[in-house]
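hey can u check if this looks right to u? its 462 residues, i copy pasted from the old doc so theres a chance i mangled smth
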Amino acid sequence: MDIRTQKTFEALFALEDIRETLRQTLPNITNSEEEHSIKEGVNRVRKILDDIEKGTGIPEVRKIAGTIDIRSREETHINIQPIQAAGRLTPEARKALIAYGDGYSTCDACRKPFRLDKITSPPIAPFHEQLASFVNMDVARVVPGARRGFQAVASTLVNKGDSVVVSSLAHYTEFLAVEEAGGIVREVPLDEHKLVTADATAEKIEEIKQETGKLPVLVMIDHFDYQYANEHDVKGIAKVAHQYDIPFLYNGAYTVGVRPVDGKDIGADFVVGSGHKSMASPAPSGVLATTEEWAPRVFRTTQMTGDLTKRKFGVKEVEMLGCTLMGSTLIGMMASFPAVRERVNNWEDELKKSNYLINGLLAIDGSRVVSEYPRKHTLSKINTSGNFDIIAQEHKRRGFFLSDELSRKGIVGEFAGATRVWKLNTYGLSWEKVRYVVDTFHDIADKYKLQINKENNSNGNK
């Protein structure tokens, strides 16, 4: 770890020690022992700041609580990990973690009706309205990850034995949500391009109708799947679903927060997004948005009454289990939102960077793109069995040689040991970093005498 990075963490930790002293004092009153502790802490911070400025010093804190490593991946490396790229926190979100880390910090000003989406200080209620507007839906709730959005909708609509149409590339959490509700997933087959089409969805619905005598109760399709990040015809599929009067759930785990999403234009009845995957938010976080038509059902309030106490909790929403995100998770999501709302407008530039990197990989003879090409997303799946994997067969480190070479140049996030088929994500990287990554792959190729064709780097993508 770069010593300035190390010392920055140490400074933050030292400030937290001062903060803890202040937490232990009486309101606005400090005794001599506390004053001494604060003074010592300030002197320590000054020394650490001098080390940061000069780039000097030695690591003094290597573990948190004695056992937890300091995570400095984002400070010391270029991280191309496929699911982490769009979840990097903004500086504002990191500040929110510091200020709102206590468990129920969001509940300081909770008043009747005692529900998360009604809290106005901090401005949680307006945030819910902004989220709904962000994806052009009527009502939104924050949830502990996209999976809990799937779960809420499935729990509302699916009964035992009901069929739910999903993609053949559906995420496992969609399966689990349907299974928990007692339903049965029915997968739409892919075409020759590994895409889910509207026609194939219609055929699947007809097949289910003929086999069971009933229509599916829900169609749930990813805009971009997690395996290839191919773009599927969600708008056409939503139209087909509505022709059968079946509600449509738009899985925007890889879109909400990174590119514009218009739920009503798509024809979605439900929009689900992932905060920690695509909205620069702490985990677990996400969003579930719906229309005025479906809101009373998916956000229904409890009607149950205690048999002995006669207690009622009528304002609590059943599928939300009352309140969902609390503390720093929610406030971090809120703190990142202004930047997230702005960054979706830069999607075309993100795609250019993605294709630049993929073209750079394709320039190495033997590389192929397993995903759609040209790329329509920053997440991509590539096949290097024709070059890097050949080297791995003879290398003493086997497939880990590529990880070693990348790590030496400060690049992490590829699947360690993978040299055949693997994924990467360029989202949020600067052009400087993207070019650096391409140059690094070319340097590795040169080192192992692989052919690079920079003039014709789009061959062999399929």
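Confidence is low (pLDDT under 50) at residues 458-462.
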